[in-house]
Amino acid sequence: MIEEFHSIKRLPPYVFAEVNRLKAAARANGADIIDLGMGNPDLPTPQHIVDKLVETVAKPRTHRYSASKGIPGLRRAQAAYYDRRFGVKLNPETQVIATLGSKEGFANMAQAITAPGDVILVPNPTYPIHEFGFIISGAAIRHVPAGNGEDFLRALERAWSHSVPKPLAVVLNFPSNPTSMVASLDFYKDAVALAKKLDLIVLSDIAYAEIYFEDNPPPSILQVPGAIDVAVEFTSLSKTYNMPGWRMGFAVGNERLIGALARVKSYLDYGAFTPIQVAASAALNGPQDCVDEIRNVYRARRDCLVECFARAGWDVPPPPATMFCWAPIPEPFQHLGSVGFSKLLIEKADVAVSPGLGFGEYGEGYVRIALVENEQRIRQAGRNLKKFFSDEQKTMKNVIPLSQKASR
User: Fold this and answer.
1) What CATH number did the domain enclosing 295 receive?
2) I want to staple 152 with a disulfide (CB 3.0 to 4.6 A). Which of 73, 147, 281, 317 is the partner?
3) Integer CA distances (angstroms), 281 to 64, 256, 278, in order
4) CA–CA separation, 12 vs 359, rounded Å?
5) What is the CATH number of the domain that holds 135?
6) Which of 233, 263, 285 delimits the end of a domain?
7) Model's pTM, two decimal places?
8) CA-CA distance, 317 to 199, in Å (whole number)?
């Protein structure tokens, strides 16, 4: 018998795989599945960004190997974005690095800083790479129930005090995927103070910082004075500019940590295709009205989904940010768990969502609903759900309890 490889053994079965197989089978049988599962933006990339890519790709010299840490113009553009958006000054030479999406950047940072057996504090539920990037690198994970206030910070401190060896780093993710929670600048101030007290590295993921629906834009942890002493922050162009397949993200912050990431990346890749980096620079430096338009589309979809699902009998809390709703499973179906309920929605309502269990054990009891279909399709999903819930209620009323059967 061939034993599984060590690193693979540390990765559990992919929770979403079973739901994805069912979704594919339903489509193969002709079902029109309304896919609100994977967070895969459906909107087009703004035209001026595409035009810059086309213009640049026509130049043969741009087909050569690129720069692993990102071309200088792109790193300057990201530094300018941080100055413009957060009032944070960054040195593009030493404090900014381009990554192949924030997911790759996170995984490579884990490789750069982790020794086997290191302990990492990770919120739960959270985006899988926050945990498994470190697991692949040989770390041990200590989960802390996800939160955005004093209780979360106190839970972090308790986890630190009961860990052996003492944790190396803590992961923060606001706006959060999947819960959509946001954090205040005061929270970040307390988090930085705690990290310095406990000698922790802070890895902050703000990939959804531009997809927000309230008056105050989400802050960056680097706005806190002295945060750059302990923190690195990850961003992405995927959702902000509808560029998910372009795979362009960034890590910025502490010079030592950015240097470690740059060294690891230098062994692994030559950076993104140069025309993509040039187009990404055009996105950051160009007109930003497209970002407002994208945000408004998600806001309209959020409002449509909350309203339509409520009419169907499912109260979905409106998220303050991100392109996701984090919804509790309706009471009659809670016994199924998030995977069972997600499968049932595909089978009975032609609607796909992501089971909360896929984001960690504390995600059980919830599903994540992605705002990746247009309003017409969302309304159709609401009608499908209304019929499904109605049919289920009728079925449950017609079921004779076993106790009654026994008495007949």
Assistant:
1) 3.90.1150.10
2) 147
3) 18, 25, 5
4) 12
5) 3.40.640.10
6) 285
7) 0.92
8) 37
β-pair partners for 205: 173, 234
Q: Which residue range forms the structural domain that includes residue 16?
A: 6-37+290-395
Q: 50 lies in a domain?
A: no
State whether 363 and 311 are in the same domain.
yes
Q: How many CA atoms lie within 13 A of 355 on its CB side?
A: 24
Q: Can you tell me the distance from the alpha carbon of 74 to that of 285, in angstroms, rounded to the nearest whole number?
A: 9
The three-state DSSP-derived secondary structure of the chain is: CCCCCHHHHCCCCCHHHHHHHHHHHHHHCCCCCEECCCCCCCCCCCHHHHHHHHHHHCCHHHHCCCCCCCCHHHHHHHHHHHHHHHCCCCCCCCCEEEECHHHHHHHHHHHHHCCCCCEEEEEECCCHHHHHHHHHCCCEEEEEECCCCHHHHHHHHHHHHCCCCCCCEEEEECCCCCCCCCCCHHHHHHHHHHHHHHCCEEEEECCCCCCECCCCCCCCHHHCCCHHHCEEEEEECCCCCCCHHHCCEEEEECHHHHHHHHHHHHHHCCCCCHHHHHHHHHHHHCCCHHHHHHHHHHHHHHHHHHHHHHHHCCCCCCCCECCEEEEECCHHHHHHHHHHHHHHHHHHHCEECEEHHHHCHHHCCEEEEECCCCHHHHHHHHHHHHHHHHHHHHHHHHCCCHHHHHHC
pLDDT tens, 242-265? 999 999 999 999 999 999 999 999
- Does 408 have pLDDT greater than 70? no
Question: Has residue 45 been placed in a domain?
Answer: no
Residues 99, 246 within the same domain: yes
* CA-CA-CA-CA dihedral for 373, 98, 102, 146, to nearest 10: -130
Buried b vs exposed e over 377-407: b needs ≥16 C-beta within 10 Å? bbbbbbebbbebbeebeeeeeeeeeeeeeee
Judge contact between 239 and 208, C-beta under 8 A: yes
For residues 324 and 183, membership in a common domain is answered with no
* Mean pLDDT score, 333-346: 95
Q: CA 156, CA 144: separation in Å to the nearest integer?
A: 7
Tell which of 221, 251, 285 closes a domain. Answer: 285
Statement to judge: residues 144 and 281 lie in one domain: yes
The answer to whether the beta carbons of residues 203 and 169 sit under 8 Å apart is: yes
Q: pLDDT of 45-63, one tens digit each? A: 999 999 999 999 999 999 9
Query: Domain for residue 105, yes or no?
Result: yes
The total number of structural domains that make up the chain: 2
